[in-house]
Request: fold
Amino acid sequence: MSPDTGKTPTFEESLNELEEIVRALETGEASLEESLAKYEAGVSLLKHCYAQLRQAEQRVLLLAGEDADGKPIVQPFEAPATSEAPALSNRRKSRKPDSEY
Reply:
C-alpha cells in the first residue's frame, strides 16, 4: 500500500517507482544505509509487480476456460496493433445490415 494515499499502487506506478530506485542506485550517490533502504523498497516493489502479473495471468486463464478434463484452455492473447484498432472499429460502425442494401 502506498503510505501517501493508503491505496495499493497500480502495476505501472510500482514499475515507475522501481525504475527510479534503480536509477538512484546506479548513480552511487546515496549512502550505504540509503542504498540498502532503496534496495529493500525495490525488492518489495518487484514482489508486488510479480504478484500483480500472476493475478493477471489467472484472470486470463479464467477467461479462457477449462476443457472437459478440467485442464485450463490456454489461448494466446491477440490484440490488434494500436494503429489498426480505430480502422476496425470504424468499419464495424459503418457496416449496414444486409436488409438495407
In short: The chain has three helices and no strands. Confidence is low (pLDDT under 50) at residues 83-95.
